[in-house]
Task: inverse folding
């Protein structure tokens, strides 16, 4: 996932949303359904979001330079955060406004078969996109539950696509409910209620995405399993006898910074310490390939020094 950024899932979602958005707009024009309008804007916003994710992946591949010595890996986090803002404003807030207006000024739906047909098609298309995202995610989430995967993933693309597709499927069901209830009762207020529900759903998803990507932007450490591998790789029991303290930080989904103060023997020569540091770096990179930036500082472990790792 980190290497590709879930590009297969993103492209599948982009293609599905472009086709669905066109169909929904046509259905809105013929039926006047506010649920269809809200869903149309939702699909357009989702298409833009997938384009942002692809752009972020491309920007993140730029080479490091003097101004950005640690590279551009966090571009993927920035574009992921932008996705949450777009989903909140263009998707959620617009749907809430449109739902309020439809409840305040309801009108009868026309050509009901257009929205119903398009919604059924959209459910099938979004289902295929969601299935692709699930398959891509299954290959990398390991034993994590779905909620743990969304919270802990260091690459933002797949969790975003998963939540977007899930939100789209639930939104389509809500839109189908609103249109169906409006047709059954002859009361257009139900269409507005369905639209309001879509808006609330999108706002909740946007807030979850914003919270997760904000955490990544602030800088997250390696996960516990990787930290344990790094600690094990650092200490060889001969020259490197312990870890005084250690810090890890994700510079991007694929790049981890490791900084540690390591304990060495007091009578080791500078050459021996240098060789031990080189060997420790090699062991770390072998155990955790994403640990590409490593800074190790040798020191003598004193009674007042409390070994710690984080």
Result:
């Amino acid at each position: 996932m980190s290497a590709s950024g879930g590009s297969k899932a993103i492209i599948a979602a982009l293609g599905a949303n472009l086709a669905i958005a066109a169909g929904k707009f046509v259905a809105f024009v013929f039926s006047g359904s506010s649920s269809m309008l809200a869903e149309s804007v939702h699909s357009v916003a989702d298409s833009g979001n997938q384009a942002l994710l692809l752009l972020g992946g491309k920007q993140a591949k730029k080479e490091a330079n003097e101004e950005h010595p640690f590279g551009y890996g966090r571009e993927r986090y920035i574009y992921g955060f932008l996705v949450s803002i777009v989903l909140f404003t263009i998707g959620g807030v617009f749907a809430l406004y449109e739902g309020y207006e439809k409840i305040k000024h309801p009108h009868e739906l026309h050509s009901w078969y257009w929205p119903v047909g398009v919604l059924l098609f959209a459910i099938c298309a979004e289902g295929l996109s969601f299935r692709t995202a699930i398959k891509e995610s299954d290959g990398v989430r390991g034993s994590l539950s779905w909620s743990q995967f969304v919270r802990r993933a260091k690459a933002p693309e797949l969790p975003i696509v998963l939540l977007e597709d899930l939100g789209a499927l639930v939104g389509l069901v809500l839109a189908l409910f609103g249109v169906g209830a409006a047709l059954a009762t002859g009361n257009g207020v139900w269409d507005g209620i369905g639209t309001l529900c879509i808006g609330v759903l999108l706002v909740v998803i946007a807030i979850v995405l914003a919270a997760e990507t904000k955490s990544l932007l602030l800088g997250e450490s390696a996960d516990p399993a990787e930290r344990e591998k790094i600690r094990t790789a650092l200490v060889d029991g001969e020259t490197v006898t312990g870890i005084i303290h250690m810090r890890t930080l994700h510079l991007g989904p694929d790049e981890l910074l490791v900084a540690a103060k390591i304990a060495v023997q007091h009578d080791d020569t500078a050459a021996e310490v240098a060789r031990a540091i080189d060997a420790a770096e090699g062991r770390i990179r072998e155990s955790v390939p994403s640990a590409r930036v490593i800074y190790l500082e040798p020191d003598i472990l004193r009674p007042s020094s409390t070994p710690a790792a984080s």
